[in-house]
Task: structure prediction
Amino acid sequence: MSADPDMNAILGFMPPFAETMGITVDHLRNGLPVMAFDYGPHVMGRPGFLHGGAMSGLMEIAAIAALRVTVAAEEPAVRIKPVNITISFMRGGREARTYALGEVTRIGRRVANVEAKAWQDDPAKPIATIFMNFLLSSPKQA
Amino acid sequence: MTDSAKSAAGFDPSAFEGILGKLGHGGHLGMRYRAHGTGWVEMELPYSERLVGDAESGIIASGPIISLMDNATSLSVWTAIGEFRPQVTLDLRVDYMRPATPAKAVIGRGECYKVTRSMAFVRGIAHDGDPDDPVAHVAGTFIRVDNFLG
Result:
């Protein structure tokens, strides 16, 4: 575990599914985690390419982590529930390490809008992006 | 031969799954073929602690449901046209109606409702036993490609 408290908090969010996918926190950018996995059979779709679902899972975890980090700074007790996700696939993911970073567009009283993108060699050339909506609730409302 | 008979005979997703499914991402998640007909395919994702998204509740993550529905809808295109046609996912939207019940398998039913020269339009549901009480709804599009294997 990292000595960085932010990093420890993020690692605490990582679910068993992240481990199954080989997803780790690669580094922090502006306090938000860049998630990554290496290419392997576990993320392969058609031969030689990433599976769209694997890319989506990586981006979704990056989006959730970005939201949790952002929410934790303001209201740590808030619960978040994903309502939906829209995924756009732009390029085939090749046999290379893949990164994803989430960005919170807006946190309202009840809804958070979060985006994430995935890339391989060049962050300016995303292979896929997602938009997610989350429902926010305080523990006593839930 | 009717379109329906051609489709049923022309593409068998269970054989396809046997060849590719065990090797890649779907196989890693434990996904398997369940049933199909013309224009639809059902895949199944058995419950596993490896897929859990929230350790406290034991509810599986939403990521595996995206993968399940991507595969089921993708295969449904080929049962609709009765043959394999190289394609990639252009987009996919998933609405999460409720969490999947821990310990239950999630069944993904993908349907292809329209195919054009370049596109295939799909929709589907994921449920954990009762199709009338879905876990998720999906809608998406696939685009035909020439360079399927790069």
User: Anything to note?
Assistant: Chain A touches chain B through 34 residues (CB under 8 Å). Chain A has one domain: 5-137.
